[in-house]
Amino acid sequence: MPAPRTRPPVLSELESWVPDDSGPARYVQDALAVDFDAMTDEQLFGERPTRRDHLPDPRPWAGHIAQGLVEVMAGARPAPQVLRWTTPEVYAAVARRAAVSARRGAGSTRRTVVRGVRVCEPADGVAEASAVVVDGGRVRALAFRLVGLDGRWRVEALQIG
Question: Whole-angstrom Cα distance, residue 84 to residue 78?
Answer without folding.
Answer: 13
